[in-house]
Design a protein that fits this description.
heterodimer; A: alpha/beta; Rossmann fold; 6-stranded parallel β-sheet; 7 helices; 13 strands; about 30% helix; about 25% strand; B: alpha/beta; 2 domains; 4-stranded mixed β-sheet; 22 helices; about 10% strand; elongated
Chain lengths: ~240, ~475
C-alpha cells in the first residue's frame, strides 16, 4: 500500500519548477567514474593479497587453503574458536566443497551442528542464538574492504552470521572481486533483468565493533565478537 | 526529543559548555582522530577529488529528479510487499507509526540509530503510548539510560561523556558492578540488549540511502544493531528523510564508500545492509511486515532554493570533525540534534530563524567544512548566505551589530564626520588601550574583547600617512 503519495510528490515537483511529477527515467550522464579505475587491473592472486592485508585492519583472521584440505582447516578453525554448537545454512555448497562428511562426523564428537531448516520456523533463531559459531559461504567477496556479501534466502537465514558469538565465512576464491563496485554492478544487473534480489543483502566486514565510549575501539558489540575468513582455492 | 534540544539561549549554552573541560578535551581529541582517519582513508583510495566530484554529481542529480526517484522507490517497494507512507510533517509520520504500534498492540520497540526519528521526536510519542522504546546503538543507549541526554555528534552521539560517567550511569540504571573499561561496559550492554532484541515486537531503523531501482533501504552500522533490529522483530518500520535516496546500487556503492571513509575512516563499516521489503516465502528471519515512512518535515521548502545543496548531505560529520567552533563549544551549544557546520546551515532551515538565528554566526567562515565535505556542499558559503538573509530580509542582526553598523553608516556617509571621527579615534580609545591593544572595550566592543583583544586604532590615519607618503616620494 502507498499512502499520501500524490500530494507529497506534487509538492516536490512544484518546488523543482515542474508542473507535474516526472515519470520518465532521467538520463544519468556522469562526468566522473573513479570506480572504473580503482583496483580494476588486479589479478585474482593480487586481489587475495589485498584481502589478506585488509583483514589485518579489520581484526579478522584469514586462512588460505584448497578444496582438499578444507575439511581439516575448518575443523581446526572451529576448535580454535572453542568448538560447537555450530550453525550453518542449508546450502548445497557445503557438499560441493566436500564438507558433508565433516558435518556428519561432528555431532558424533559432541559438536552439535544446526543446519538452517525453514520448516521449523522461528525455532531456527532460538537455536542459532545459542550457537557458538555461525558458518556461511560468501556469495561475493570484496578484496579492498575485506567484506563478505551474503544474500538471504530460504535456506540462508540472516541471523546465522549475526547471532552466534563467532563467525566463520567460507570464501571460494572465485567469489573475490576488487571492491563494492563490482558487487553493486552485479546486483544492479539482476534488477535490470527483472530478477528478484534477496530481501536482505548483507555486506559484512569483520566482527562487530564500536567506538562510542571515549573513541576506544571495542571489538564485538551486538554481532559476533570474533570473525575468520577461510579462502578456498577453487580453480 | 525533537530537533531542538533545549530552551536556553545560544550564548548561555556556549558559556556553560565552555566550562566542561572533559567535553572540550574529548571533542578536540575525537576531532583529531576522526579527521586524521578520514584523510588517511582518502589518500589510500586515491583520486579523492574525483570521488568527491562524483559524489556531488550523484547527489545533485538525485535532488533535481527527486520526484521521479521517490515515485520509483515507492512503486518498487510496493511490488515487494512493503508499505510506503509519505509524511509531509513530523506529526503525520509519528501518527502513522503510532497507528502501527496500536494495531500490533506492541509493547517493546527496538531502534537502531536514526537522526530523522530524533528530529521528529518519535520516541517521546511512542513512550506516551506506553511503549518501551529502546535505543540499540551503544552511544544512543548510553544517552537514553542517562535520562535522555541529547546527542552531541551525529556519528558518535555520546562523545561528550567519559567512561567514568558512563560507568556511573550503568551502575545506577543497570545495576552494573564492573569497571569503567570500555570492553566491559560494551559487553554488559551486549548482554542486556540481546534479551531485548529477542523479545521486541517492532524494530525501527533510519535509512542511510534508499535505492530507487529496487525499492531497497540501505543501512550502515558497525555494531550490528541494525541487523538485529531488522532481522528479529516481526514488524519493521524504516523512517527516512525524503532526500536520502540514490537511483541504483551503483550510486549507493559510491556514496556508502564516501560516507564510511569520511565518517570514521573505514573502507566500509562492519555492517552494510540492503533490505528489500518483508521476508520472502520460505524465509524465517526478517520481518513479515515492512513499512517505509518518507518524511518531508520542511525539506521540500529547501528544494529549489539557494540552499538546496544542503540536502546533498550524507550525515558523515566530516564538517563537524574539522570545525574550530565546534571544537570549542561542543555539540550541545547548537541546541539542535544537528550540530557543527551542517547543523548551523540545516537547523535554521528546518526549525526557523526564531530559535536558531545565532547558529550561522557560530562559524569563522574558514571553509574547512567545505573542504572536508565528501559531496562538496559549499557549507561556508551557505552560512554566509544565511547571515545575509538574516540581516537583509529578516532584519534580525544582533542589536549591538545593528547599532555599530548604524553608527558607522552615519559616520561614513558624511565627509566631515568621517574625518573628525577617524582623527579622534585613537585618543578616544586611549583609556582602553594598553600595548597597542584593547582588552576591555566599551559598548559594542565589549562582546569582542571579552574573548580576545582588539587592535587599537592607529595614531596616524591612513589618509594622512598616504598624503605624507606621496609628498615624500615627490608625487604630490
Amino acid at each position: 500500500m502507498i499512502q499520501n503519495r500524490e500530494a507529497f510528490l506534487a509538492n516536490v515537483a512544484s518546488r523543482l519548477s515542474r508542473t507535474k511529477v516526472l515519470t520518465e527515467r532521467p538520463e544519468r550522464n556522469w562526468n566522473y567514474r573513479p570506480q572504473d579505475k580503482t583496483l580494476t587491473d588486479k589479478t585474482q592472486d593480487e586481489l587475495v593479497d589485498i584481502l589478506r592485508d585488509q583483514c589485518r585492519l579489520i581484526h579478522t583472521e584469514l586462512i588460505e587453503t584448497d578444496s582438499a584440505a578444507l575439511p581439516n582447516v575448518l575443523a581446526e578453525a572451529v576448535a580454535a574458536y572453542g568448538g560447537g554448537p555450530l550453525a550453518i545454512w542449508q546450502d548445497p555448497r557445503y557438499e560441493a566443497f566436500g564438507l558433508r562428511e565433516k558435518l556428519q562426523s561432528w555431532p558424533k564428537q559432541g559438536i552439535d551442528v544446526h543446519e538452517w531448516n525453514p520448516s521449523i520456523g522461528y525455532d531456527n533463531i532460538s537455536i542459532v542464538e545459542k550457537s557458538n559459531i555461525g558458518i556461511t559461504f560468501s556469495d561475493i567477496t570484496l578484496a579492498e574492504s575485506g567484506t563478505v556479501v551474503l544474500f538471504s534466502g530460504e535456506g540462508k537465514g540472516r541471523t546465522v552470521s549475526l547471532l552466534p558469538n563467532k563467525y566463520i565465512a567460507l570464501i571460494p576464491k572465485s567469489t573475490i572481486v576488487p571492491r563494492m563496485t563490482q558487487a553493486a554492478q552485479q546486483i544492479s544487473k539482476q534488477v535490470q533483468e527483472g530478477k528478484s534480489i534477496a530481501s536482505c543483502i548483507n555486506f559484512i566486514t569483520g566482527p562487530s565493533n564500536s567506538a562510542d565510549i571515549e573513541m576506544n575501539l571495542v571489538v564485538g558489540v551486538h554481532g559476533p565478537v570474533k570473525a575468520a575468513y577461510i579462502v578456498i582455492d577453487d580453480k | 526529543m525533537a530537533m531542538k534540544i533545549g530552551n536556553e539561549k545560544f550564548k548561555d549554552n556556549v558559556n556553560k559548555q565552555m566550562e566542561d573541560t572533559f567535553m572540550r578535551g574529548a571533542v578536540a581529541g575525537a576531532q583529531e582522530r576522526l579527521r586524521t582517519r578520514r584523510l588517511d582513508a582518502a589518500e589510500e583510495l586515491g583520486n579523492w577529488e574525483e570521488w568527491r566530484s562524483h559524489g556531488e554529481e550523484i547527489r545533485q542529480h538525485t535532488l533535481d529528479h527527486l520526484d521521479y526517484y521517490l515515485q520509483e522507490l515507492s512503486e518498487n517497494l510496493q511490488k515487494r510487499g512493503g508499505h510506503v507512507f509519505f509524511a509531509a510533517t513530523a506529526e503525520e509520520a509519528n501518527d502513522y507509526v503510532k497507528g502501527i504500534v496500536k494495531e500490533k498492540r506492541a509493547k517493546k520497540i527496538l531502534k537502531a540509530k536514526s537522526m530523522v526519528t530524533e528530529e521528529i521526536g518519535l520516541n517521546a510519542v511512542l513512550e506516551q503510548e506506553g511503549c518501551d522504546v529502546i535505543e540499540t546503538d551503544l552511544g544512543e543507549y548510553i544517552l537514553q539510560l542517562d535520562d535522555h541526554d541529547p546527542p552531541s555528534h551525529i556519528v558518535t552521539p555520546a562523545l561528550h561523556k567519559n567512561k567514568e560517567q558512563i560507568k556511573d550511569v550503568f551502575a545506577e540504571k543497570l545495576e552494573y558492578k564492573q569497571t569503567s573499561e570500555p570492553e566491559e561496559l560494551a559487553l554488559h550492554a551486549r548482554e542486556k540488549l540481546r534479551q531485548e532484541f529477542l523479545q521486541a515486537d517492532i524494530g525501527i531503523t533510519g535509512c542511510n540511502f534508499a535505492i530507487a531501482e529496487s525499492g531497497s533501504v540501505g543501512l550502515v552500522t558497525n555494531e550490528g544493531n541494525a541487523g538485529m533490529v531488522s532481522d528479529l522483530p516481526d514488524t519493521q518500520i524504516c523512517v527516512m528523510g525524503m532526500e536520502r535516496i540514490v537511483p541504483t546500487f551503483e550510486e549507493f556503492e559510491v556514496l556508502v564508500g564516501l560516507l564510511t571513509r569520511s565518517a570514521v575512516g573505514q573502507k566500509l563499516t562492519s555492517y552494510i545492509t540492503a533490505l528489500t521489503g518483508p521476508r520472502t516465502a520460505g524465509e524465517v528471519d526478517g520481518p513479515s511486515e515492512f513499512h517505509l515512512v518518507i518524511v518531508d518535515n520542511g525539506r521540500s521548502g529547501i528544494l529549489g532554493t539557494e540552499f538546496q545543496s544542503v540536502l546533498q548531505c550524507i550525515r558523515c560529520a566530516a564538517c563537524i570533525n574539522v570545525c574550530p567552533v565546534y571544537r570549542h563549544i561542543g555539540g550541545h551549544s547548537y541546541n539542535s540534534i544537528y550540530p557543527g557546520p551542517i547543523g548551523a546551515v540545516l537547523t535554521p532551515l528546518l526549525g526557523g530563524y526564531d530559535d536558531f538565528k545565532e547558529l550561522p554566526y557560530a562559524s569563522t567562515l574558514c571553509a574547512a567544512c567545505t573542504d572536508a565535505c565528501p559531496v562538496k556542499i559549499p557549507l561556508h558559503q551557505l552560512l554566509h548566505r544565511h547571515r545575509q538573509v538574516i540581516v537583509e530580509k529578516e532584519g534580525r542582526a544582533p542589536i549591538s551589530e545593528k547599532m555599530a553598523m548604524k553608527a558607522f553608516g552615519i559616520g561614513a556617509s558624511s565627509n566631515p564626520l568621517y574625518a573628525a571621527g577617524s582623527k579622534v579615534a585613537s585618543s578616544v580609545m586611549k583609556p582602553f588601550t594598553k600595548d597597542e591593544t584593547i582588552s576591555k572595550g566599551p559598548g559594542p566592543l565589549k562582546a569582542w574583547t571579552e574573548i580576545r583583544d582588539f587592535p587599537a586604532p592607529n595614531k596616524e590615519r591612513f589618509r594622512d600617512w598616504f598624503k605624507q607618503h606621496q609628498k615624500e616620494s615627490g608625487k604630490a
